[in-house]
Description:
Radius of gyration: 21 Å
Distance between the termini: 61 Å
Number of domains: 2
CATH architecture of the largest domain: Roll
CATH topology of the largest domain: Pnp Oxidase, Chain A
Strand order of the largest sheet: 2-1-5-6-7-4-3
Number of strands: 7
Strand content: 15-25%
Helix content: 40-55%
Largest sheet: 7 strands, antiparallel
CATH class of the largest domain: Mainly Beta
Amino acid sequence: MTDDPAISPPLEVTAAPSTRFGELPYGPTMTRLLEPMHGAFLRVNRWVALPVLRAGLGPVFSTPLTGSLMILRTTGRKSGARREIPLGYAIADGNVYCIAGFGPETQWFKNILANPEVEVVLPLGAISGTAEEVTDPAEWARAFRILMTSMGIVGRATSGDVRGVPEDRLREMGAGLPLVRIRPTGIGSGPADPGGLMWVPMQVGTTVLTLWLGAKAFRLLGRLVRR
């Protein structure tokens, strides 16, 4: 959501119906799993991905194999409260691109339709921006290919290998999945900025390292004294 022979592309990309998420290009097997996957993603996002990214550890988990994660901050269309969701992303032509993997019913996508002003927390910084769905066919094809390729295993498992695929086939592979462009408009607040949480793992790491080095030095001093 690499060119590894152990990872097989989806057997089908023809849209299959899902009672909740509508027509998505995942084939019948994955479509049947969408509901439990959605619940699992919500729990993993809340208890694992968001805390890790808020703590500024995004660079540690960003690799060409698994892709990179950002935090997208939207405004709840009903509550008006700030909402956060971790998403795979790509940067192209000065914009940030992401995709609504559960189709038009994806909650964060509905939020940006109501209020397109968002904030994006990248691994090494944050921006504010305006989000909008990509409708231009040429831009969509270029950005979809870049995004799915950058998402590594997740992109390959979701849509298959998009490299070298003709544009008409590419549109079939991404049918029903809104692609979103975020145009930067300013600077946002990231984990290392005032109020962020990056200081927590940094201080914990520094403390652990200091204690470890202190213990090593103490043991070395004890050996010297016993001599």
